[in-house]
Amino acid sequence: xxxxxxxxxxxxxxxxxxxIEEILTDHAYCEQKAASTAISLIIGFPxxxxxxxxMTALAREEMGHFNMVHDKILKRGWVLGRExxxxxxxxxxxxxxKGGSRETHLVHKLLYAALIEARSCERFRLxxxxxxxxxxxxxxxxxxxxxANHYTMFLAFARKYGDxxxxxxxxxxxxxxxxxxxxxxxxxxxxxx
Length: 193
Hints:
Layout: H1 12-17, H2 20-44, H3 49-75, H4 87-92, H5 102-130, H6 134-161, H7 164-182
């Protein structure tokens, strides 16, 4: 359903289970960054009323998710750690060339967001099925549904604001690039890396 070309190695969950505090901190910041992305799309493309409306709702939802993850951290007696660099996102966002029209820039931002949400959804599914911590398994099962909806929303907007055939070609190329990136990731207790 997600179109990912390379699934996460299930052994990634074993890495996560060795440091739950680390994955929760990383996850909290992923939610905050997702809210920031939604806000940046509003600021960058205020004339796209439908996008603005959806991104307003998304920013609210993502900050709600951030709060839920933060509550899990506090419940376990920890505090939110410092933000880490997301190697996955940094490398992913080098794919499309810089420059181009505002519309092209918008389509690229939407495709990046769709792919990040798709990978998050896949990771949440894996955690919901494989992690031994029942509370976290249930938590990630519930989040997985939201992430799937986010992925399809971003992809639909990319197809709406760009030429559908061209967008679909770019999407497939981005998926191939992401699969290559994933061959070197999945060895850390981070949501994407």
